[in-house]
Specification:
Blueprint lengths: L20 E2 L3 E2 L10 E6 L4 E3 L6 E3 L2 E4 L4 H5 L6 E6 L1 H11 L6 E4 L14 H5 L1 H9 L6 E5 L9 H10 L1 E7 L5 H7 L6 H13 L3 E9 L7 H14 L3 E6 L4 H14 L4 H8 L7 H17 L11
Parallel strand pairs: 3-7, 5-8, 8-9, 9-10, 10-11, 11-12
Antiparallel strand pairs: 1-2, 4-5, 6-7
């Protein structure tokens, strides 16, 4: 692989801290803090990765450790840390030049939200890594792209998304687990309110983009009942969503401990039920998953989803 022209890479946060990587490739210098978020940088080698999930290819502009909002939920120190893939756009361009990815779905932001939607966190606003990747994707054609974000900052890139939609099949997924802002704040701490996300979804749809509601997480006995799902699906339809998809809650890694701590404090009557449902597993058993999704499937059809996107077959 040819060496990357470092003059083309994204400028470091602090130009006096352009150190070289050590160990896993992260730069030794951190750059200045952004509202309490520790930002580390490493040279991007590959940003397009094979995945065993629903999308065979994934692109993650950032990698988040000690996730954004973790301190608010857990109530202890050790704030969020974000690793930036420096020169990500050039790494992506190299990959696109040597691979034919036509017809193979690509997910942008499969592990970490590409817009880092925590209030007061301005990493993407200042660095623009996600925008640079969208710009790079305009050089290709015939791709199937899926972008998932909770952040209204996606509207900054409407020009690129509409340009991409003329060359590719583009879908933007907006996760909204409920309309109740307090519940959403508990399930997804330090993220935009559901009303903000709905406005973003409506603006995407108004531009003719394929926008979908993503109900994630769908948690048993928390947000899977009709009284929660009915108004959410109605609001998404009014906003112009072409479809709604739901993903059941997964309990893995540090997120498992955070969720169970919240459950014990706020919904103690559900603790025994969740122990029975999940045990030591990260996912629900098939029968339990089907029961959790039952109301969603019924209401999705009742609200006319999926809908044909205007101008598309």
């Amino acid at each position: 692989m040819p060496a990357m022209d470092t003059t083309q890479a994204l400028l470091p946060l602090d130009p006096s801290h352009a150190g070289t990587g050590a160990g896993d490739g992260e730069t030794a210098a951190r750059g200045r803090a952004l509202r309490g978020v520790e930002v580390r940088r490493r040279p991007a080698r590959e940003v397009l990765h094979r995945s065993s999930g629903p999308f065979p290819w994934v692109v993650d502009p950032y990698r988040a450790y000690r996730p954004l909002g973790a301190r608010r939920l857990v109530g202890r120190g050790g704030g969020p840390r974000v690793v930036v893939e420096d020169g990500a756009q050039w790494a992506l361009l190299r990959t696109l030049s040597r691979r034919d990815l036509g017809g193979e779905p690509i997910a942008l932001g499969a592990q970490t939200d590409p817009y880092l939607p925590a209030p007061g966190v301005a990493v993407e606003e200042q660095l623009g890594v996600t925008r640079s990747l969208l710009e790079t994707l305009t050089s290709a054609a015939g791709l199937t792209l899926s972008l998932t974000t909770r952040s209204p900052l996606v509207l900054r890139d409407l020009d690129l998304l509409t340009a991409l939609d003329r060359r590719h099949a583009v879908t933007v997924n907006v996760p909204i687990p409920a309309l109740d802002a307090e519940l959403v704040g508990a399930l997804e701490p330090a993220t935009p309110a559901p009303a903000e996300r709905l406005r973003a979804l409506a603006a995407l749809a108004a531009e003719g983009l394929t926008a979908r509601l993503l109900i994630r997480p769908l948690a048993p006995a928390i947000n899977d009942a009709a009284e929660t799902l009915e108004p959410l699906l109605a609001a998404a339809r009014e906003a112009g969503a072409v479809d709604a998809v739901a993903h059941c809650l997964e309990l893995r890694g540090a997120g498992r401990a955070r969720f169970l701590a919240w459950l014990a404090a706020e919904r103690p009557r559900l603790v025994a039920r969740y122990r029975s449902l999940y045990g030591r597993r990260g996912t629900l058993r098939r029968a339990d998953k089907n029961r959790t999704l039952r109301e969603f499937h019924r209401l999705r059809l009742a609200h006319g989803f999926p809908r044909r996107r205007p101008g598309r077959g």
